[in-house]
Design brief:
Elements lengths: L12 E5 L10 H6 L20 H11 L4 E6 L1 H10 L10 E3 L6 E6 L22 H4 L5 H4 L21 H7 L7
Parallel strand pairs: 2-3
Antiparallel strand pairs: 1-4, 2-4
Length: 180
């Protein structure tokens, strides 16, 4: 099972499975029981060419070219494949960044909506494609590919409380017709 990301709590994030849509309409049960497909080889160094196709490159390109998208997170092996396979205008690659996990799905971070004064966007990022070997050195290092377990397990972050939310979020949650 895929785990959720805390960043989704602010409403600017979405995960999109890389699993292709089947050629039939899915029943409710099918949707609930369907699993995501691993796009990365077991050695974590590249994509699995049996499942990652040119269609995936196009989907990621189209998502990155949307003006409202600030950045997209994918597994480093997927980013490496995009760098290798992208043709023509490659400027969209600058929005796609490697990040832990994201080997079954990609993570979209949207820009703050115009006029949303309380919304805090992410810092600007380089316009560089991020396709140089030095951009991948960390992600394909032994420490990342084969991490040693921590001596002391990290404590999970506590969930966000209503008191920590911006006033606009509290107003929505406290609205008379709000449903839990």
């Amino acid at each position: 099972a895929l785990s959720g990301h805390a960043s989704h709590q602010i409403g600017l994030d979405a995960d999109v499975w890389l699993t292709p849509m089947p050629d039939r309409r899915l029943s409710r049960e099918d949707r609930e029981d369907m699993s995501a497909v691993m796009m990365v080889r077991p050695d974590r160094l590249d994509i699995d060419p049996k499942v990652f196709t040119p269609g995936h490159v196009l989907v990621l390109r189209d998502a990155a070219q949307e003006p409202g998208v600030q950045r997209i997170f994918v597994n480093a092996a997927i980013k490496k494949a995009l760098c290798r396979e992208a043709k023509g205008d490659r400027s969209w690659l600058a929005k796609i960044r490697p990040w832990w996990g994201h080997d079954y799905h990609f993570h979209i971070r949207m820009r703050c909506p115009a006029g949303a004064t309380e919304c805090e966007g992410q810092p600007s990022q380089s316009e560089d494609e991020g396709c140089n070997p030095s951009d991948f050195a960390f992600w394909f290092s032994d420490a990342v590919l084969h991490p040693k377990p921590p001596l002391i397990p990290p404590k999970p972050k506590p969930p966000m409380t209503l008191a920590q939310m911006p006033a606009a979020c509290k107003a929505v949650l406290n609205a008379p017709d709000a449903k839990p």
